[in-house]
Design a protein that fits this description.
nine-stranded mixed sheet, alpha/beta, 650 residues
Length: 650
């Protein structure tokens, strides 16, 4: 460089005449933190680091301001909306090396690690290609940012963010609520307390209606983070100037305004460099007397100087909080690192640690199930005690509460008995309906057995995960996950044969009704008990030797069978009566008898509502036999299911 006038805008001159960069002492550290945070995830991303966001309406000249601060021409250009994705630009100041070293400036994208772009026109093409890839080629907008690092000896050590401009009317593929979406996107950046806001407004528009200033005021009501930038001073109407704007006469800002002159589209088309544009800007302010005395708030160089002052002061303000937040995260990370234990280099050490962890896990699981754990709870049941509770207080108790005849009505039993006797009348209680009803009740025992094993399976999973919560297992989350998967699969595989055995046992019990079982009530005992219950219901005391027994089976009275109505008059009729009857019959032969019609039987037939004494006794006997045999099977299942679960699972 031959003179100070040729310095890029990213540099300024200190009081001692030396060239200094913005935040030369602090910002490089912040920049390194940006590198670290960009490659991590989780809580570190929530830490807010200083950055500069350029905000403005569409075609307000904000991208030109950003390029002028960087000193390079690399952003997409054109009519309409150009910035359609946030561009997070990390600038890295590279110290000058000895002669012969490669001093070329280069850019590198986060999505293309290791690939350096030395041609900045290729950087512009890559930004455009990535924008089209994510947001489409027809003016679409995306919130997904593009991260670009530029390394040079002539740039700021800082992070700049170029945000999409505020647009009012959707075009192309833009949604109808494009303005609201862009505002939300912009606010997500500038609402961070660590963000410096460059609110860009064109001079040829009313400053009171500036979108950038409105949003900056909403995000920064105190005004400590907002710098106003007024662009396009050279295209204001003749006879007007922006002096009142720059002095804060329209909308005052605590940090004030800076006026700049952008490169025109003609300058860009003619490839006028940024250096030439800066010379043109300085000449413009010298030629316009309206800006006399405002040299400290005119020009890109003054903007860089002001940004330097504001940024360093801002970093000093937020640095204590940032330091405390980083220290807090550092302590958490060190604590987590300490929990992982010593580093194991050799395979033998790793194998020994693995064996030790699995052994302790197995012992903890066994002691918790057996109730031998040293950390016994006095507040609630745990481990094997919960399994015992499931067996006795849930499974066994529930089966004992079930009445096998609770879903059988007397009509159901009468219907089954009559269906089993066919066209004949019932004399004795047939065995078939009893077997059918017993099988139906035995089948009901399968579901609670399957539910019981599922409850125990869930409890064992809980016990296993409780044993995995020890500190040594927490050191190795991958091992913990694999142990959880293996134990879960082992228990799931053990459940299947147990469930199959339960089904087989129920089928075996249903396949053969063993009425010879010593605990079975039996037919004679059931009849006797049923008759006693009927007498009790009628209020009749048990019979004595002189009393006539109540008939059951073949001992029914003739009135029950209806015998008198058919044959009772034959032995008492006289001959005269018989002759008279015959004569009358022959006298009526000449008259044609009437036709006897029968009613059609209904589709569904049920026994008569009136229940005979015999039917009542048969129903009593059937219920007694069903309950007796059901109790035998229930006790078998109550004993077998816990044993099978303990064998297959525990």
């Amino acid at each position: 460089m031959n003179s100070m006038d040729e310095l890029p805008p990213s540099l300024s001159v200190g009081a001692d005449g030396k060239i200094v960069t913005i935040g030369s002492s602090v910002i490089p550290i912040i920049n390194k933190l940006q590198d670290i945070f960009a490659s991590t995830s989780g809580d570190l991303l929530k830490i807010e680091l200083p950055q500069v966001a350029v905000v403005g309406s569409q075609s307000s000249g904000k991208s030109s301001v950003l390029e002028a601060l960087v000193g390079r021409d690399f952003l997409p250009r054109g009519s309409g909306i150009c910035t359609r994705r946030p561009l997070i630009l990390q600038l890295e100041k590279r110290p000058r090396q000895l002669d012969g070293d490669d001093q070329r400036e280069w850019g590198e994208f986060l999505h293309l690690p290791g690939k350096r772009f030395y041609d900045f026109s290729k950087i512009r093409q890559e930004i455009q290609a990535e924008t089209d890839k994510e947001a489409g080629i027809n003016r679409g907008v995306s919130v997904k940012p593009i991260r670009l690092k530029i390394s040079s000896a002539n740039v700021l050590n800082i992070t700049l963010v170029d945000l999409p401009g505020i647009t009012k009317v959707p075009v192309g593929d833009q949604p109808s609520d494009i303005e609201a979406r862009i505002r939300t996107m912009v606010m997500s950046f500038i609402s961070q307390e660590a963000c410096i806001i460059l609110a860009v407004s064109p001079a040829n528009c009313d400053l009171a209606t500036s979108d950038a200033l409105q949003m900056a005021r909403a995000a920064d009501p105190s005004g400590y983070r907002t710098i106003g930038v007024i662009t396009k001073l050279d295209i204001m109407d003749r006879g007007t100037n922006a002096r009142n704007f720059l002095l804060g006469g329209v909308i005052p800002l605590r940090l004030g305004y800076i006026g700049v002159v952008n490169r025109s589209q003609e300058d860009i088309n003619k490839n006028r460099s940024i250096g030439e544009a800066l010379e043109h800007e300085e000449q413009f302010f010298r030629d316009h007397t309206a800006y006399d005395g405002l040299s400290d708030c005119c020009g890109i160089r003054q903007l860089a100087k002001k940004l330097n002052q504001v940024l360093e002061q801002h970093i000093k303000t937020i640095l204590p909080h940032l330091k405390a937040e980083l220290n807090s995260h550092l302590l958490d990370v060190e604590k987590e690192l300490h929990s992982y234990g010593e580093i194991m280099e050799s395979k033998a050490e790793q194998g020994a640690i693995l064996l030790n962890i699995l052994t302790k896990y197995s012992e903890a699981l066994s002691t918790m199930v057996d109730g031998k754990s040293k950390q016994l709870s006095t507040k609630a049941l745990s481990g094997g005690a919960r399994i015992h509770y499931i067996f006795q207080s849930i499974f066994v108790k529930r089966l004992e509460e079930v009445d096998p005849c609770d879903d059988l009505t007397d009509d159901d039993i009468r219907t089954a008995i009559q269906n089993a006797t066919g066209p004949k009348n019932t004399i004795f209680v047939p065995e078939l309906p009893i077997e059918v009803l017993v099988r139906r009740q035995i089948e009901r025992l399968l579901d609670p057995s399957l539910q019981c094993i599922r409850h125990v399976h869930e409890e064992l999973i809980k016990v296993s995960r409780a044993c995995e919560a020890n500190d040594e297992m927490q050191r190795f989350p991958v091992l913990k996950r694999h142990v959880d998967e293996v134990v879960g699969k082992f228990l799931a595989d053990a459940v299947k044969p147990a469930e199959e055995m339960f089904s087989k046992i129920i089928e075996i019990e249903m396949g053969y009704i063993n009425t010879s079982h010593p605990s079975f009530l039996g037919g004679s005992k059931a009849v006797e008990t049923a008759m006693e219950e009927l007498r009790t219901l009628k209020g009749i005391h048990p019979q004595t030797n002189s009393a006539k027994p109540i008939a059951f089976g073949v001992g029914f009275s003739t009135s029950t069978w209806g015998m008198p109505s058919l044959f009772g008059s034959r032995g008492t009729s006289s001959k005269s009566q018989a002759n008279g009857s015959v004569n009358e019959t022959f006298c009526d032969m000449d008259q044609k008898p009437s036709v006897i019609k029968l009613s059609e039987p209904p589709c569904i037939l049920r026994p008569p509502e009136m229940q005979t004494e015999t039917e009542a006794a048969q129903i009593r006997v059937t219920k007694l036999l069903v309950r007796s045999y059901y109790d035998i099977v229930r006790k078998n299942i109550q004993d077998f299911v816990p044993k099978a679960i303990m064998y297959f699972l525990v």
